[in-house]
Automatic annotation (TrEMBL):
Designated name of the protein: ATP synthase mitochondrial F1 complex assembly factor 2
Acyltransferase listed as a keyword: no
Any single GO BP term: mitochondrial proton-transporting ATP synthase complex assembly
Main location class: mitochondrion
InterPro entries to which the protein is assigned, alphabetical: ATP12_ATP_synth-F1-assembly (IPR011419), ATP12_ATP_synth-F1-assembly_N (IPR042272), ATP12_ortho_dom_sf (IPR023335)
Subcellular locations according to the entry: Mitochondrion
A Pfam family per the record: ATP12
Keywords: Chaperone, Mitochondrion, Transit peptide
Length: 258
């Protein structure tokens, strides 16, 4: 049931590359890094000596050499055609600068509905599924509640988990305390996993991208075990999820390691 609700939730990813961009030929030969000494220390990626800019024309000034190296690597790996949808680090950087930093409150507003109807806060009605959820999601909910000092509701059927108002207010404040880079990575991870709690574990706990996918798709995987997998659908979706969740986790880690 939770998985069905997640699929029905309106898709509102705030990515600047959410719509498929036009194919562009590679127009540069050399990719280099440059440290900017003006204002807050940051790093830029240069293509034949010219600074990479976001879709809105903002210089792509990145928080630390580690993040910049990942972005530079994506540009270096492009061959005849530039494929923006295969450049998650570049996308995260552009999104943070063009969207998140200009309106962090809007990012929070997009995140809270995922918590209010979070997949891991639903309890299945089938005994085998319910037991698996208790084993896998129970410890995750306990970690989340302890980490952020909140109380979570748990629901079954079509009812909402009904988290206390104090929980939503505290999470709102904690989100607003994050900088644009962290908030952007968390939002993209949340929209990819369709779970705010799973995305939080990905960034703030030692949860790997593979583990996050398993937690996010526990109910769907249970159904696949019973009825089989549709090749070209579920497997392709997992590949996309792995790409974005891996990038979000590493983006956040490199940013924190500055």
């Amino acid at each position: 049931m939770a998985a069905m609700l997640a699929r029905c939730r309106p898709f509102c990813r705030g990515l600047v590359t959410a719509t498929r961009p036009k194919v562009m030929k590679r127009f540069y030969q050399e990719v280099m890094l440059e440290e900017s000494k003006t204002g807050t220390p940051c790093w830029r990626v240069l293509l034949d000596g010219k600074v990479v800019k976001t879709p809105k024309g903002t210089p792509l000034e990145l928080p630390g050499r580690g993040v910049a190296q990942e972005v530079a690597g994506e540009w270096q790996q492009q061959t005849e055609d530039i494929l923006p949808l295969e450049m998650p680090f570049t996308t995260l950087g552009c999104t943070a600068l063009d969207i998140t930093q200009h309106d962090p409150a809007a990012s929070v507003d997009r995140l809270l509905p995922f918590l209010e109807m979070d997949t891991v806060c639903f309890q299945g009605e089938q005994d085998l599924l319910a037991e698996r959820q208790r084993q896998e999601w129970g410890p995750l909910r306990e970690w989340f509640a302890s980490k952020y000092e909140v109380t979570l509701g748990v629901a079954s059927g079509l009812a909402a988990p009904n988290h206390p108002e104090e929980t939503l207010l505290r999470i709102t404040q904690l989100l607003l305390d994050r900088d644009a880079w962290e908030l952007c990575a968390l939002e993209v991870a949340t929209q990819t996993a369709k779970s705010f709690i799973v995305a939080s574990a990905l960034l703030d706990k030692s949860t790997t991208a593979e583990e996050a996918i398993r937690l996010a798709q526990l109910e769907e995987d249970f159904q696949i075990e019973r009825w089989g997998m549709v090749e070209g659908d579920h497997d392709v979706m997992e590949t996309e999820m792995l790409k974005w969740l891996t990038a979000c986790r590493r983006f956040s880690k490199l940013h924190r390691d500055i």
